[in-house]
Every structure is written in structure tokens, then in C-alpha cells.
Write a structure and sequence with these properties.
By secondary structure, the chain is of the alpha+beta class. The protein has 13 helices and ten strands. α1 (about 1-20) runs parallel beside α4 and α2 (about 20-35) runs antiparallel to α4. It binds 3,4-dihydroxyphenylalanine. The site of 3,4-dihydroxyphenylalanine has 11 residues, from β9 and β10. 3,4-dihydroxyphenylalanine binds near residues 250, 253, 308 and 309.
Length: about 350
């Protein structure tokens, strides 16, 4: 019987060596030590042994059972460890591999400049108004003192949607929309897209952006206009920046002017950025025409105001030294990624 036990032990140990799966181990355990297992059968047969042999064989059989149980457990642990190791190996990160580059989302350069300008005006107490890009002729022209056949219409090649509806050629119509709804004091900017039927080239695009400004109250004078716009430019280009006003004509302002600022690049000496001028034009402005105030139901005897219109693209081109306007609208990632 002792021999038989030894035999079982050896078969179990051999089987354990070959086992590579946890399930196999369980099968081995059942085969030898389960209820109907070989070792169990031997133990059951102990009763037939002579009484004096029983304790010795019994002890031996128990020892073998314990030993096999331990061996199965050990093998189980070894297999589990091997599986774990394989898993870790498969998951190993090769830190020397080149990384995947994530494209970082960014604001379009025009949006960035637009936000900067809005920020400056909001800091000066302006609120922001929004209005339609598909606009009535009335707001875009008529109420702004630009009647049909007025020569100013020729300078703004207009996309007509219908007889009396256009794609707005300027944000100035927002002056009228704001004044119709709001009683003075008014201090508002209206940024947005405008459209003109221009052939595109380095300095023209059928769509571009403006920021309209409007201030209306009692006793607003040209001095308020100058002070406000000078402060705006200093905030945008730095304290040392100077401004100058040149007389101009716009139908909806009287008097009207264009404002230049001393070149941000050369400080006014003259360079390639300002084409040797020392000055760069930045906006049109003027005192709101009394007729426009009256058109909006505001008494020009009681109130005065000033208005201005800034072209966004030109500012962005100067700021980033961009010499072709079309780059803003082509959405080439190589261009956009630089901002
Ligand atoms: N709307 C004008 C344009 O597109 C710009 C402008 C000039 C706006 C004078 C104004 C202003 O508000 O007062 O050329």
C-alpha cells in the first residue's frame, strides 16, 4: 500500500509539472483527491489493513495528501504569477517610442483680435450689441442718410438679396437698431461680419469684420470722441502710441474724420509696415449726423453723439505681420496653428 501511495504521489507530481492552466490543476486534484479520487480510494481501503500497520500507513497517506495539496497550491501560485507577468509584459509602455501629438484647439486669429478689442471697449463701459447680417436697405443705408442714388452706395458694392434687403455692407446699421430700442445714454459697440461684392485679393475680401461704436448722451462733443478713441489705441498698441485725425466724409456723421495712429513698428519714423508714412489708418469716425438721430426718434437738439467704425482684418494683419488677407479665410491649419 505504501508503494501504491508513492506511485500516486509520483503521478501527481508529474502531472503538476506539465500543468499550465489553473483548470488543469483542479482536474488533477479531483482525479486524485476528490471523493472518487485515487488517493481517496486508497485511504478508504485502510480498514482492510492489519491494525498494527494502520497508524503508520495512515500517517504516511496523510503526509502525502498534505504534501500534494501544498504542491498543487504552489503550482497554482506559480501559474498565476506567470499569467500576471505575461499580462504586464504585454502592457509595457515603451517610453522611447515617439509620442502621438494632440492637436490643440485654438481661437482663430481674427477671433482673438476681436476679443481683445471687445475687452478694451467693455473695460471703458461699452456694452456689446449683436444684429442681423442680412439687413434691410433701410438700416444699412436709408436711415444712415444714404438715400437711393447716393454716391456712397457705389463705394460699397452691395450684395442684394431682394430690392430692399442686402447683406450688410457695414455695421453702421446697428447704430440705428440700437437707437430705435434704447434711450440715451448709449455706449455700445456692435462687432460682426460685413459683406461687399469685391474681388478678392491680398487686401480685399467679400466678407470681413467691423466693430461699430456709438455713444449718445447730452453734451457729447468731438473731445469725447478723440479722448475715447485715443485711449482705445493706447490700450491696443501701448501708451506711447499717438493718434491724428484727418477730415473725411461719411453721410451719417458730421463732421467726419479718419483716425491714424503712429506706426506700432517704427513709432512714426517710417518703415515698411507703414510704407514710410509713420502713420497707419485704423478707423472712420464722426459726430452722429442730426438727421440720423432724428430718424431714430432721438431729439438732436437735446442729444449729441459720436460713432466710429473699425476694420478688424487690418488690425490683425498689422499685429501679426500678415500681408495677405486671404490667409484668414482659407483655414489652412499650417497658418492657423501659428497663433
Ligand atoms: N461704416 C463705415 C465704413 O464701412 C465706417 C464708419 C465711418 C463707421 C464713420 C462709423 C463712422 O460709425 O462714424 O466705411
Amino acid at each position: 500500500m505504501k508503494k501504491e501511495l508513492e506511485q500516486i504521489r509520483m503521478s501527481v507530481e508529474a502531472a503538476l509539472k506539465d500543468a499550465e492552466k489553473i483548470e488543469t490543476l483542479e482536474n488533477i486534484r479531483i482525479k486524485y483527491m476528490g471523493k472518487k479520487g485515487e488517493l481517496t480510494a486508497v485511504l478508504k481501503g485502510m480498514g482492510k489493513l492489519p491494525a498494527e500497520e494502520r497508524p503508520q500507513i495512515g500517517a504516511f497517506a496523510n503526509e502525502i495528501r498534505k504534501r500534494l495539496e501544498t504542491e498543487i497550491e504552489e503550482r497554482k501560485a506559480a501559474i498565476a504569477a506567470a499569467i500576471e507577468e505575461k499580462r504586464l509584459e504585454a502592457e509595457t509602455i515603451d517610453v522611447t517610442m515617439p509620442g502621438k501629438r494632440n492637436h490643440e484647439g485654438k481661437l482663430h486669429p481674427l477671433t482673438q483680435v476681436m476679443n481683445e478689442l471687445k475687452e478694451i471697449f467693455m473695460g471703458m463701459g461699452f456694452s456689446v450689441a449683436d444684429g442681423p447680417e442680412v439687413e434691410y436697405d433701410y438700416y444699412n443705408f436709408e436711415a444712415l442718410n444714404i438715400p437711393k442714388n447716393h454716391p456712397a452706395r457705389d463705394t460699397q458694392d452691395t450684395f442684394y438679396i431682394a430690392d430692399n434687403i442686402v447683406l450688410r455692407t457695414q455695421t453702421s446699421g446697428m447704430q440705428v437698431r440700437v437707437m430705435e430700442k434704447t434711450k440715451p445714454p448709449i455706449r455700445v459697440i456692435a462687432p460682426g461680419k460685413v459683406y461687399r461684392s469685391d474681388t478678392q485679393d491680398a487686401t480685399h475680401s467679400p466678407v470681413f469684420h467691423q466693430i461699430e461704436g456709438l455713444v449718445v448722451d447730452k453734451n457729447i462733443t468731438m473731445a469725447d470722441l478723440k479722448g475715447t478713441l485715443e485711449m482705445f489705441v493706447k490700450k491696443l498698441y501701448g501708451e506711447k502710441t499717438r493718434v491724428r485725425f484727418r477730415p473725411h466724409h461719411f453721410p451719417f456723421t458730421e463732421p467726419s474724420a479718419e483716425m491714424d495712429y503712429s506706426c506700432f513698428n517704427c513709432g512714426g519714423k517710417g518703415c515698411s509696415v507703414c510704407k514710410g508714412e509713420g502713420w497707419i489708418e485704423i478707423l472712420g469716425c464722426g459726430m452722429v449726423h442730426p438727421k440720423v438721430l432724428a430718424n431714430c426718434g432721438i431729439d438732436p437738439e437735446e442729444y449729441t453723439g459720436f460713432a466710429f467704425g473699425i476694420g478688424l482684418e487690418r488690425i490683425a494683419m498689422g499685429k501679426y505681420s500678415i500681408n495677405d488677407l486671404r490667409l484668414f479665410f482659407e483655414n489652412d491649419m499650417r497658418f492657423l496653428e501659428q497663433f
